[in-house]
Amino acid sequence: MKTLKIFSLLATVAILSSCSNDDDNHNQEIALSESEIPTEIIAYKTTHFPENEIVNAIKDTEGNVVTYDIYLSANFELEFNSNYEITDIDGISKLPDSVIPQAILDYVAQNYASNVITDWELEHNHQQIELNNSVELEFEMDGTFIRIDND
């Protein structure tokens, strides 16, 4: 009976250890040197944030989903999907106009003239921005205004 309890305990520990290892293999963050950052991401950064230096770059893998988080000077954070397409831009100051679709820039200029866009995110079927007054606005993919996001 004592041998059976020890065997059961060892089996339980082995199972828990293998589950823990599976999580580690499927969820990992890898720091990238500038030379390891995909060229498409470097090109985007150079085009839209030429004055900002790369502070940190992380390749994040969760299951089968890969994203790249690029941290720039002046507190800008860029997130790219596995196809190196921009999906999220966070800042504490005005984002460059070149990263915001013209229809959204026009809407903000007309309706929130005293504010600036500090965050932009591509959702599944729409875009979302945040203004420096913490108002979040949602837009269709073509830039048509949907609503103020109160979530």
Describe this structure in words.
With 151 residues, this protein is an alpha+beta fold. The protein has a domain at 93-151: Inhibitor of vertebrate lysozyme, Ivy, CATH 3.40.1420. It contains 3 helices and 9 strands, in the order αβαββββαββββ. It has a 9-stranded antiparallel β-sheet. The longest helix is centred in the N-terminal third of the chain and has 25 residues, at 2-26.
| Rg for CA atoms | 22 Å
Q: Output mean pLDDT.
A: 87
User: What's the total number of strands?
Assistant: 9
Which structural class do the helices and strands define?
Answer: alpha+beta
Helix content: 25-40%
Low-confidence stretches: 1-24
Widest β-sheet, arrangement of strands: 1-2-3-4-5-6-7-8-9
String of helices and strands: HEHEEEEHEEEE
* Net shape: globular
Query: Could you tell me how far the N terminus lies from the C terminus, measured between alpha carbons in angstroms?
Result: 57 Å
Largest pleated sheet: 9 strands, antiparallel
Strand content: 25-35%
Number of helices: 3
User: Would you state the CATH class of one domain?
Assistant: Alpha Beta
CATH architecture of one domain: 3-Layer(aba) Sandwich
Write the CATH fold name of one domain.
Inhibitor of vertebrate lysozyme, Ivy
